[in-house]
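Study the following:
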Amino acid sequence: MQFETLNIAVEDDLAIVELNRPNRLNAFDLQMVTDFIAAIDVLGKDDAVRAIIVTGAGPHFCSGADLSRGRDSFDAGHQLQGDDPRIRDRAGLVTLALFDCPKPLIAAVQGAAVGMGATMTLAMDCRIASTNARFGFVFTRRGIVPEGCSSWFLPRIVGIPKSLEWLLTGGFVDAEEALAAQLVSDVVTEHDLLASAKAVATRFITSTSAVSVALTRQMLWKLSAADHPMAAHRIESRGVYELGRTAEAREGIEAFIQKRTPEFPLKVSADMPDFYPWWEEKTYD
């Protein structure tokens, strides 16, 4: 699997996606957006991959959107009206691809993670930072607004007051402040960053069912804004009913009784229950 702007390696059930434009501090241009969305789609369907780690080549994670157009970098022209449904910010497209991925996602962040370099990590399940990491939610200092669906994700992770503080000031958040606010789960040396991310990913996939993990990840994210717990009850009931009739649940129970490591037979690519993906029953135009 080769992409112009990414390095991808698969080892021990883990995929490592490395943003690879170090001469531009791994800034996202249109090619990287296209490559990244395609890579997440391919890896999400690959049964040889149980979890995905995203990191950056060189000393920095990602400096955000490529601003090589200078003062007009955010100007998309006047071909479309403001309410046209075709208007989509590129960071949001990246975030939504991560949001719908069935595999656990871990961000290994070193150096600068600015703009969409910060917001893209919010749709991941775990963020680990090196001691020199800095998250920059700089939108108000660039004369725009938060993107990458961050106005939805960030308050769910760190709360409204901290989100307002970071987004309204448009400043930088260092690794220790990020840890205190629970934006990241751990701060390690840059030397230990990738190994720590691999250790977390391995915990997600050891002795767990790939189908169960995929459904659980989507249940937590997709139901996080449900109006009533009944929405969760309905999906959970369908999940327990459907998986409870499969060899997956039988293997899980037998392995527990026999005190051995389970060998789950079902695959995400072919064996997800019929109600998945349930959220597509409602379209978002």
Notes: The chain has two domains: 6-205, 210-281. The domain at 6-205 is CATH 3.90.226.10 (2-enoyl-CoA Hydratase; Chain A, domain 1).
